[in-house]
Amino acid sequence: MNYNSTRDSHRTASAAEAIATGISREGGLFVPERFPQLTQERLLQLSKLSYIERAKDILGEYLTDFTEEELYRCVSGAYAGKFDDESVTNLARLGDNAYLLELWHGPTCAFKDMALQLLPHLLTTSAKKVVDGKEIVILVATSGDTGKAALEGFKDIPGTRMLVFYPEQGVSPMQKLQMTTQEGGNVAVCGIRGNFDDAQTAVKRIFTDQALAGRLEQSGRMFSSANSINWGRLAPQIVYYISAYCDLLADEEIALGDPINICVPTGNFGNILAAYYAKRMGLPVAKLICASNENNVLTEFIETGVYNRNRPFHTTISPSMDILISSNLERLLYALADNDDAQVRALMDSLSAEGSYTLPAPMLERLRDEFAAGCCDDGATRAAIRATFDTYSYLCDPHTAVAVKVYQDYAARTGDATKTVIASTANPFKFSHSVLEALGEPAEGLAEFELVERLAACTGCEIPAGLASLKGRVPRFSDVCDREGILDYVVEQLGL
Ligand SMILES: *Cc1c(COP(=O)(O)O)cnc(C)c1O
């Protein structure tokens, strides 16, 4: 299996090259040259296996330059004993036709763990194949969930170093505590005075600083990235959609071959793209339902074919979906254009020049065939948290609630009664303040762990161990710098 670039379909890379380098040199994203096909027989076989075995099997189709033994080591290193649910993910029923696919049973209580527990293993194994002996230095700019999941995934992984930058005023108290108390001898965390875009822009500048890269190379190291444009983050996400289908099959909720819908609360379009790829592999999927918050650029795009980022940015109670440029959408465009790289380049050029583009009619038709879309604001999100708890005794976080609401609207609008898997992306205790407010419980003026404990008391839900253990912990990292100071911080940390 080789990988092509979305902006140059003649460029090919092995899986290890695609993962070690992250992004193609002309700025395109790596995509598999074809989609391995799952027969019904194969789905039936997979349904009898554990999550780890399913993951090894499915990833083996994509990472053909990994040996069987390497794959097994990577996958069990990522998932064995690291998740609080033995089956790694969990499916919870929501009414007659819907299921919540809980993807947050990992150490940081958000779905990013599903990929970021595995990425360090894939990255170090890939690096051994293509750039043997180099230490990999990973720089991360985060708005919250990615930073903690990346830190937890890479801590004490030999051959790696990680530096994380977060907006000092722009993350939730729980997210900040999760990051500043991080353990591990190879990691450091620094707050910046500025917003997420400032952090991201500064980090990108460091990645493309040739002089710095030269000095790093001389010292036997190289930069890499852990964000969701890396194929090594996307591939692990395909697995859980196939695995969910297998679980429904094993539980006799569906019969072999029955189509399901998949509804995903979407930000950077990575998670829902993985569901689309699972469909391309032959998983019986009818509609992919793209759920957005008030930043509804994708809803408009799927309905009209016009992508327009020139709009106000809303700060919402589902912050991981507050994104106006969804980088992974480029991979979908490439597929909708039948791998026509010139088409993708034209659309991406229009996006950077005008901040918008319009899909040609044949691509729009294919898009609307595969996807439905919807959005809701914070008020509707809070109402969905409350209604879901009152009706089903199920407590969901604000991101998941957006997807629940959008799914329910879709089902009411279309009458579609197809069984639907809704991706549940975070544990509600990560967002205790918003969830308490949604339930109509007083939350003002309480410290973070008072909120957590009140939420547990009023819902009877259990505080996840990964968050409970942070109580009373003294932060280890207190560095803060201006955005202009990030480069100096990196130079100092790396002794360059
Ligand atoms: C990152 C994140 C999302 C958005 O996922 P994308 O892959 O960026 O679309 C949704 N919910 C939570 C809790 C997240 O952390």
UniProtKB/TrEMBL annotation:
The modification N6-(pyridoxal phosphate)lysine is found at residue 112. This is Threonine synthase. Catalyzes the gamma-elimination of phosphate from L-phosphohomoserine and the beta-addition of water to produce L-threonine. GO terms for molecular function: pyridoxal phosphate binding; threonine synthase activity. Belongs to the threonine synthase family. PROSITE patterns: DEHYDRATASE_SER_THR. Gene3D superfamilies: 3.40.50.1100, Threonine synthase, N-terminal domain. It is an enzyme of class 4 (lyase). One of its GO terms (biological process) is threonine biosynthetic process. Residues 2-79 form the Threonine synthase N-terminal domain. Its EC number is 4.2.3.1. NCBIfam families: thrC (TIGR00260). It comes from Ligaoa zhengdingensis. Residues 93-422 form the Tryptophan synthase beta chain-like PALP domain.
